[in-house]
Amino acid sequence: MDLSPLDLRILRYSLENGVLESEREIAKKLRINPSTLSFKMRKFEDKKIITNYKYRVDFTKIGFKQIAWVLIMPKFEGKGIREMMDCLLEYPQVHVCLNISGKHGFCIKIYSENKKEITELLEKIQAENKWIKIHKPLFVSKQVKSHNQIVERKNNYKLDEIALKLLAEKMQNPQERLSDAAKKINIHRNTASAKWKEMLENKIIVKKTPVINPDLHRQMGIYFMVVQYIRSVDRTDKLEKLLEKMSEVHELNCISRDKDYNLLAIIRTKDIHEYYTLMDKFYNEKEFSNNIEKMSSTVIISSDSRRHTYLKDIGIQKLVKNS
């Protein structure tokens, strides 16, 4: 399926920045006619170029203040890769599961209330799944970038049960009108509108992104993905500023108390050649090489994330208590 340069520009913008804004506002930023954008978006949906939409949420602002990345080594006991990934994603706190190259095989991203809960969860996963060996978690001390957006720290908004129910409903049905979501959870549409506005203003909802047909990922420039581990020469501040500006850096986390690395990034490029060019830049350009002590990487072979029922599975009452 061939996409025109304009198609790619629209899809790339939607993927990186989301589609929470009105089509008129997005068209203005893309410098195209709003009717052209509307026609293109409907075409993408009709032709299954866009297969769905997802709300990207900052879970640290709704009670899950601790994030961890965990490497997992599978044993060969007759389970397929897809079966193993599905098994790990059955645990509600496991938000992302990556099938990676190298000896570990899998890397999972966990959201939880604190380090103790994560440690207990990993003990449970290990006890219930003899086919894996779990390695020491890499705890995130700071989110710098998430879903290709620089993370803004605003922690002064407390979610109530109504807001969480509304968010859970919209996550399960991203294209549902706000008024219809309000009816489903038995609240007035004005209440729903006010709650939704607050969640947007406080960056709890980071963005709404299209889910692009995987067959088009190469054309989109997001086909080749890597987990990049980086050790900065000194403090991470300078390197954070450099990396957060790069469109290839989809996610950037500061890692606490790890003897080898203090930054973990998810990098997305068109192909291995573009990744090589990026790494060459890190080694050759002084603004990077002066701030990087060492790096290593693993290729992401496939990935999957928690289904839209994430908030429902965790339990609204627990979130109300934690937020």
Could you list the spans in which at least 5 consecutive residues all have pLDDT below 50? none
CATH class of the largest domain: Alpha Beta
- Percentage of residues in strands: 25-35%
Question: What is the succession of H and E elements?
Answer: HHHEEHEEHEEEHHHEHEHEEHHEHH
Oligomer: single chain
CATH fold category name of the largest domain: Alpha-Beta Plaits
Helix content: 40-55%
Question: What does this 3D model show about the protein?
Answer:
The structure is a single chain. The chain is α+β, with helices and mostly antiparallel strands and 323 residues long. The N and C termini lie far apart (45 Å). The strands form two sheets. It has an eight-stranded antiparallel beta barrel, surrounded by four helices. Strands 1-8 form a two-stranded antiparallel ribbon. It has three domains: 5-47, Arc Repressor Mutant, subunit A; 61-149 and 217-305, 2-Layer Sandwich (Alpha-Beta Plaits), CATH 3.30.70.3460; 158-201. Helix 2 packs across helix 3 (34-46), helix 6 (161-172) crosses helix 8 (189-201) and helix 7 packs across helix 8 (189-201). It has helices spanning 5-17, 23-30, 34-46, 81-89, 115-128, 161-172, 178-184, 189-201, 217-220, 237-244, 272-284, 286-289, 310-314, 316-322, and strands at 50-57, 66-74, 94-100, 106-112, 132-134, 138-146, 149-150, 205-212, 224-232, 249-255, 263-269, 292-305.
